[in-house]
Amino acid sequence: MQKNLTLYNFNTSYSFGKEEKKEKEQSVTSKLTRLKESYEKEGQRRAVEGIIIVHDHGHPHILLLQDNSYFKLPGGKLKPGENDVEGLIRKLTKKLSPTGTSVADSPWEIGDHVSTWWRPNFEPTLYPYIPTHITKPKECKKMFVVTLPEKCKFAVSNELSLIAVSLYEIYNNSQRYGPVISSIPALISKYNFVCLNVDN
């Protein structure tokens, strides 16, 4: 049975700004170096990401962070002992909300856990399962659907852009968006999208 998911218009419901926010270097080499350092200190890296869905002219779009030609979902590494939902709210608030927004005042409502991805080694490739020969995967990344209220303000780092990309652009386009992001249309196909427009 499909679940209803209410979406608000990307262009009329939300406002967007830029701020000085510190961003870690996004090159593959630097990310894998940080992963290795983290693994040696804390063991398997636990990460969470949010699938934030909006609409434009009645078509569902996913919010992505863009750094030049690199795209990613908002989220990040959990602290030791931190649960998935609390950690995702903290990371979304840090990356997407105006400076000074408290976690308690953040607009994020964390919904269904729709996917888990595993990084077997200190390499770029992620899998939606643990390969049979791997006993100690280096990273576990969980993806959650995140819903928004009809109004909220976004503020991202000056180094990044927050863009809305349609499902039909993402679907089966792993060459541009990678296997994780290109899997999203299938992951959220269980929802029936209810698209609403709100006047400013």
TrEMBL record:
<keyword id="KW-0694">RNA-binding</keyword>
<comment type="subunit">
    <text>Homodimer (via N- and C-terminus); binds RNA as homodimer. Component of the cleavage factor Im (CFIm) complex.</text>
</comment>
<feature type="domain" description="Nudix hydrolase">
    <location>
        <begin position="44"/>
        <end position="169"/>
    </location>
</feature>
<dbReference type="GO" id="GO:0005737">
    <property type="term" value="C:cytoplasm"/>
</dbReference>
<keyword id="KW-0539">Nucleus</keyword>
<dbReference type="GO" id="GO:0031124">
    <property type="term" value="P:mRNA 3'-end processing"/>
</dbReference>
<comment type="function">
    <text>Component of the cleavage factor Im (CFIm) complex that functions as an activator of the pre-mRNA 3'-end cleavage and polyadenylation processing required for the maturation of pre-mRNA into functional mRNAs. CFIm contributes to the recruitment of multiprotein complexes on specific sequences on the pre-mRNA 3'-end, so called cleavage and polyadenylation signals (pA signals). Most pre-mRNAs contain multiple pA signals, resulting in alternative cleavage and polyadenylation (APA) producing mRNAs with variable 3'-end formation.</text>
</comment>
<dbReference type="InterPro" id="IPR000086">
    <property type="entry name" value="NUDIX_hydrolase_dom"/>
</dbReference>
<keyword id="KW-0507">mRNA processing</keyword>
<dbReference type="InterPro" id="IPR016706">
    <property type="entry name" value="Cleav_polyA_spec_factor_su5"/>
</dbReference>
<dbReference type="GO" id="GO:0006397">
    <property type="term" value="P:mRNA processing"/>
</dbReference>
<protein>
    <recommendedName>
        <fullName>Cleavage and polyadenylation specificity factor subunit 5</fullName>
    </recommendedName>
</protein>
<dbReference type="InterPro" id="IPR015797">
    <property type="entry name" value="NUDIX_hydrolase-like_dom_sf"/>
</dbReference>
<keyword id="KW-0963">Cytoplasm</keyword>
<dbReference type="Pfam" id="PF13869">
    <property type="entry name" value="NUDIX_2"/>
</dbReference>
<dbReference type="GO" id="GO:0005849">
    <property type="term" value="C:mRNA cleavage factor complex"/>
</dbReference>
<comment type="similarity">
    <text>Belongs to the Nudix hydrolase family. CPSF5 subfamily.</text>
</comment>
<dbReference type="GO" id="GO:0035925">
    <property type="term" value="F:mRNA 3'-UTR AU-rich region binding"/>
</dbReference>
